[in-house]
Amino acid sequence: MKWKQYRLKTTTQAEDIVSSILIDLGVEGVEIEDKIPLTQSDKEQMFIDILPKTEVDDGIAYLNFYLEEANDELLREIAEELRQAGSYVDVGDCTIESSETEDIDWINNWKAYFHQFYIDDVLITPSWEPVQETDKDKLVIHIDPGTAFGTGLHETTRLCIRQLKKYVKQGNDVLDIGCGSGILAMLALKFGAKYVVGTDLDPCAIEATHENMKRNELATTQYEVINGNIIEDSKVQDTVGYAKYDIVLANILADVLVPLTPVVFKTLKVGGIYITGGIIAEKETMVTQMIQAEGLEILEVTRDGEWVSVTARKGK
Q1: Which CATH class is domain 2-104?
Q2: pTM to 2 decimals?
Q3: Contact predicate 280/259, CB 8 Å
Q4: Do the beta carbons of residue 168 and residue 194 sit within 8 Å?
């Protein structure tokens, strides 16, 4: 199926207003292209596995939207609304270019940017790329994140992988909170863990983890995945269990780690290891103070770029 693609030129100052106008007029989705760098708040609220190239902000934004067929009446309505908006905000040129595009697989478009890569002696490869003969002797993880977070490209995931490899022992039981694509859970098993339990709020993560475990020939007898909020839901906490894990992984966000840590404390065995990630550098102290307040001993603080991982141990 062919779609009509429209590209509207406006300003970064007005992009939110213009987006709202389009949506109010019945446009179902809008893509925004601009050169505004991520703010500190943006970095704290999201992980980006595949980073876009950034340029200097030039004040220009392009809004792309798609229609199944040409609609001149809608375009006239958009033009009138933009004219009115121009009385109180600089909406820029508001020129609209049109073109025709084939039906697009929006979910899978990002795959063009995700290629196999190494984290030390581990090869992480998307499920659609073959493993070369020269890499046959490496520890290989085949992964298709789908809509779940976690390819291993992001600094915070790399930090957790390195700490996991350092601390996991043969026969360990591991809990992965916020398992995403299942990458840390899979690596825990590959590194020697006996059993892994993963939890995530997103149902897509549960599906992605099952699919990736199967891709890597890991049996359902080796892991379990639970959909739910371990911080707030006592049933999830009871299902996960108490004082039974040698390692707990939480590659989430600093603001989530604070309320999560008391819950994690209850899941750890005495001597168990708590590996955290998703901590932007400015929030390191907030997390370390919470970890220490719960009676955990900080073993290491490791860094990669702006991101921090804190590793701690539950004492007697």
Answers
A1: alpha beta
A2: 0.70
A3: no
A4: no
- Where is 102: in which H helix or E strand? strand 96-102
What is the rounded end-to-end Cα distance, in angstroms, of the chain? 64
Sequence-separated (6 or more) residues with CB below 8 Å from residue 219:
none
Render 4-68 in DSSP notation, one character per residue. Answer: EEEEEEEETTTHHHHHHHHHHTT----EEE--PPPPHHHHHH---SSPPP-----SEEEEEEEES
Determine the angle formed by the axes of helices 254-267 and 284-293, rounding to 10 degrees. Answer: 20
Residues in the chain, total: 316
Domain ranges of the chain: 2-104, 150-314
For domain 150-314, the question of CATH label 3.40.50.150 is answered with yes
What confidence tens digit (pLDDT) does each residue in 141-198 have?
A: 998 766 445 666 678 889 999 999 999 999 999 999 999 889 999 999 999 999 999 9
Cα–Cα dist 27/159, whole Å: 41
